[in-house]
Amino acid sequence: MDSISLKALAKINIGLDVTGIREDGYHEVRMIMQTVNLFDKVTITRTTDGSITMSTNLKFLPVNDDNLCIKAAKLLIEEFGIKEGVHIDLEKHIPVAAGMAGGSTDAAAVLFGVNKIFNLKLSKTALMERGVKIGADVPYCIMRGTALAEGIGEVLSPLPPMIKCSVLIAKPGISVSTKQVYDSLDACFDNVTHPDIDGLIDDIKAEDLQSLCSHMGNVLEEVTIPLHPVIADIKKCMMDNGAVGSMMSGSGPTVFGFFDDNRKAKAAKEALTASGMVKQLYLTTIFNNKI
Ligand code: ATP
């Protein structure tokens, strides 16, 4: 095999809680992760000269060791002493720096693809063990589906598949600094309201979308929304247009809405387009491993 094309799927958080701050500064989390059918296209081509290079449609992204795709390819190629190289072409659609694990899912796809191209025969678990060296979200991006993530996000427990529904994803034209969000959270940590993650797990098991939406919560909204009120405006627009629930993903600024009727989701998409509040807008669906 000389070339492979893969879909690197984005994630949203149905629930996100921060339960503590470790001595090394990392945050202990409890998050419900969900893969959605919004993806980057990652094409990996084997080269004979031993170089590891990449190209991408987004000119502002790094194409050197700072890109998680290059990190992922190097990790396997160096570990296995492979003499050949790869060229990675990244067609980016997932909003960047937006709480959707875009870089992590690209890295996961590269690990998967390099494993296949060079016939390394690494199991999914073996790839996940290596992925965590690149980033805490990478093991989840290899696993995909519905999962509870604990620790710093790398301790994963699979959950039953999330209820199928339409998912509207909206990213405003602002950038959020993840570091600033977590620093602000640290400053008010004793006073934040923690979402009911166990209640959400029960809702997933009961396949009850209404109840799930009533329990959805992201502790980081409490600090991100005051910094960027447009996030609350986008949530309101989704709810006004028939979303069953709407929430910010990760540290933001991306907002998603769940709809039990695709016509309402389309109407909400039109309303958001007309509002001028969003820069990237996608109507997609829940991705489940177990179909
Ligand atoms: P998370 O949900 O894990 O917080 P994110 O959506 O906030 O992730 P990414 O889209 O992964 O963030 O990108 C964050 C930064 O990582 C970007 O500013 C970018 O420069 C860098 N980066 C490195 N590799 C990639 C990649 N393959 N795709 C996107 N960004 C990348």
How are the SSEs ordered, and which strands pair?
Layout: E1 3-21, E2 27-47, E3 52-56, H1 68-79, E4 85-91, H2 102-117, H3 124-131, H4 138-143, E5 146-150, E6 155-158, E7 166-172, H5 178-187, H6 197-206, H7 209-215, E8 217-218, H8 221-227, H9 230-240, E9 245-248, E10 255-259, H10 262-275, E11 278-285
Parallel strand pairs: 1-8, 3-4
Antiparallel strand pairs: 1-2, 2-4, 2-5, 5-6, 7-10, 7-11, 9-10
Helix pairs in contact: 1-2, 2-3, 6-7, 9-10
User: In CATH terms, what is the architecture of the largest domain?
Assistant: 2-Layer Sandwich
Stretches where pLDDT falls below 50 for ≥5 residues? none
Look at the structure and give the mean pLDDT: 96
SSE succession:
EEEHEHHHEEEHHHEHHEEHE
Q: Approximately what portion of the residues adopt beta-strand conformation?
A: 25-35%
Task: Write down the CATH class of the largest domain.
Answer: Alpha Beta
Could you give the count of β-strands?
A: 11
CATH topology tier name of the largest domain = Ribosomal Protein S5, domain 2
Largest sheet: 7 strands, mixed
Q: Ligands in the structure?
A: adenosine-5'-triphosphate
Broad structural category? alpha+beta
C-alpha end-to-end distance: 28 Å
Task: Kindly describe this structure.
The protein is α+β, with helices and mostly antiparallel strands. It has two domains: 3-158, Ribosomal Protein S5, domain 2 (2-Layer Sandwich); 166-285, 2-Layer Sandwich (Alpha-Beta Plaits). It has helices spanning 68-79, 102-117, 124-131, 138-143, 178-187, 197-206, 209-215, 221-227, 230-240, 262-275; strands spanning 3-21, 27-47, 52-56, 85-91, 146-150, 155-158, 166-172, 217-218, 245-248, 255-259, 278-285. The strands form two sheets. Strands 1, 2, 3, 4, 5, 6 and 8 form a seven-stranded mixed beta sheet that branches. The longest helix is centred in the middle third of the chain and has 16 residues, at 102-117. The mean pLDDT is 96. Bound molecules: adenosine-5'-triphosphate (ATP). Adenosine-5'-triphosphate is lined by residues 61-62, 66-69, 90, 96-104, 106, 137, 178, 250-251. Residues 61-62, 66-69, 90, 96-104, 106, 137, 178, 250-251 line the site of adenosine-5'-triphosphate.
